[in-house]
Specification:
Length: 98
């Protein structure tokens, strides 16, 4: 469950927030109506880090290939789109099996 708290509430309820996050909740912390941070579980954070690493590996591979093959901007964009779809599909499959 996603919850939104003010910074003052988050300060008062820090222990409770940690316990809720451990169980899978996400907590958005706001100050003056502006999001200042988000508290998520270590598992969720790890997944985001892995996604970012996969994205940059794919990006670097495409970039290297584009340099050696002298690809047009359109061809590079198409390859990037394909890679993004492939990574998203793989991540969806992992989420369904978890």
């Amino acid at each position: 469950m996603k919850r939104t708290l003010t910074a003052m509430e988050a300060r008062r309820k820090f222990g409770e927030m940690l316990e809720n996050v451990r169980r899978g909740d996400e907590v958005v912390i706001e100050r003056a109506g502006k999001t200042m941070g988000v508290l998520i579980s270590p598992e969720r954070y790890g997944g985001l880090v892995r996604q970012r690493e996969e994205f940059w590996k794919a990006f670097e591979a495409i970039q290297a290939g584009a340099r050696t093959k002298d690809l047009s901007d359109e061809e590079v964009e198409r390859l990037v789109d394909e890679e993004v779809r492939a990574v998203r599909g793989k991540n969806r499959s992992k989420q369904r099996s978890a």
